[in-house]
Amino acid sequence: MRTTVGIIGAGPAGLLLARLLRGAGIDSVVLEARDRAYVEQRQRAGILEQGTVDVLRAAGAGARMDREGLRHDGIELRFDRRRHRVDFPALTGGRSVMVYAQTEVCKDLIALQLAEGGPLLFEAEALAVEGAVTARPRVRFRHQGREDVLECDYVAGCDGFWGVARGAVPAGMGQVFERTYPFGWLGILADVPPSHDELVYARHDRGFALLSMRSPAVSRLYLQVPEGTAPEEWSDEAVWQELERRFETADDWTLRRGDITQKSVTPMRSYVHEPMRYGRLFLAGDAAHIVPPAGAKGLNLAVGDVVVLARALAHEKETGSAALLDDYSATCLRRVWQAERFSYDMTTLLHRAPDATSFEDRLQLARLERLTSSRAAETELAEAYTGFPLA
Fold first, then answer.
1. What positions does the domain FAD-binding occupy (predicted)?
2. For 9, 41, 104, 384, which has the most beta carbons within 10 A of its beta carbon?
3. At what angle do helices 328-350 and 298-319 cross, to 10 degrees?
């Protein structure tokens, strides 16, 4: 099998890259290790930055998002039983975010790829990337019980943190920057309308809590829990009681309860692999970087990566110049590190470390006081939350 760009992974990064390349007249093949049902059901991010929304619309993948997604013009910060709303459009010149689950983004892009795009092979497990520094890299993969080879001009590794793409970069040819956190997020899906019409980020002495949603009828909520916590350690009643404690306010606001349909724990880490390119292999999304979820940046960083890569490949096709491809890693990493910084800031602002001192507690509260009393500080948060420039 032969193509111009071999794409490993049919998550949002790989699927959107294939869509953008099709628009530029560049052929591709997408290899996905899982079956279609798994890809369309795996729960991940749900907040789309303004730039991500704009890209999906421009790619012809925004129709259902615009019908069913929930535009949010702000978030609420809670601490000391107080509530403060951050108004995104007023602080950013009109920018907002969209609540639209990654599962739905994948469904939309898969449908478009199967109807209009190049080959998308499910249950096609990439085994290795070979010859990345040659003019003809290859992806060895297993599909329908036999091994095959995809010959390409370029390989895009969009196969996540545990995929094979990053493993093709030899030891010593890259540098890793990493931080792990001594806590995670216990997340639940509940069949109950959200208790607030925008996301609520709560800092509490018992730990962080987040009120989010998947639809007008389904709530998504999170609790900070110790690292290594198992979901079954928390009964449904204990989850609701703890959420009520951490979201408590001085007014008459109440948390709605409902049937919990899913419960999981997400570990917290920051990770960056530099560079994001090795020869003709380009890493994108979680294959190159991980952010803690408090900043809502993971999916949006992946979109930024593939926008830069698609533009660079189109430029090379149109002009013969590889200048933008040569700049791919540096261009992406400028945005990646800003997102890492913002995600770290949000994590340390709102989560209480297990060994936190009273001094550190007061510093957190002082930072929140500054955010809620200074338009300049509030603007910085709003600009970062709604999205850094894609290039």
1. 2-343
2. 9
3. 170
What φ, ψ does residue 210 adopt, rounded to 5°? -130, 130
Q: What are phi and psi of 177, to 5 degrees?
A: -120, 125
Q: What pLDDT shows up at residue 391?
A: 67
Q: What angle do CA 176, 178, 179 make, to 5 degrees?
A: 170
Tokens 């829990």 — which residue? 225
**Which residue type occupies 263?**
K
Residue 108's pLDDT band, with cuts at 50, 70 and 90, is very high
SS (H, E, C) 129-198: EECCCCCCCEEEEEECCEEEEEECCEEEECCCCCCCCHHHCCCCCCEEEEEEEEEEEEEEEEECCCCCCC
Question: Which residue, 381, 391, 390, is CA-closest to 92?
Answer: 381
Helices marked H in the chain:
12-23, 36-41, 50-58, 63-68, 88-92, 102-116, 236-247, 298-319, 323-326, 328-350, 358-373, 375-386
Q: What is the pLDDT of residues 23-46, one digit of tens each?
A: 999 999 999 999 999 999 877 778
Write out the catalytic residue numbers: 72, 201, 293, 297, 385
Q: Which amino acid is at 106?
A: C
Is residue 313 classed exposed, middle or buried when 0-12, 13-18 and 19+ CB atoms within 10 A define those classes? buried
Return d(Cα 338, Cα 180) in angstroms, integer.
18
What CA–CA distance (Å, rounded) separates 302 from 133? 23
Report if pTM > 0.85: yes
Return all residues near 261 (Cβ < 8 A) that are at least 6 apart: 189, 190, 191
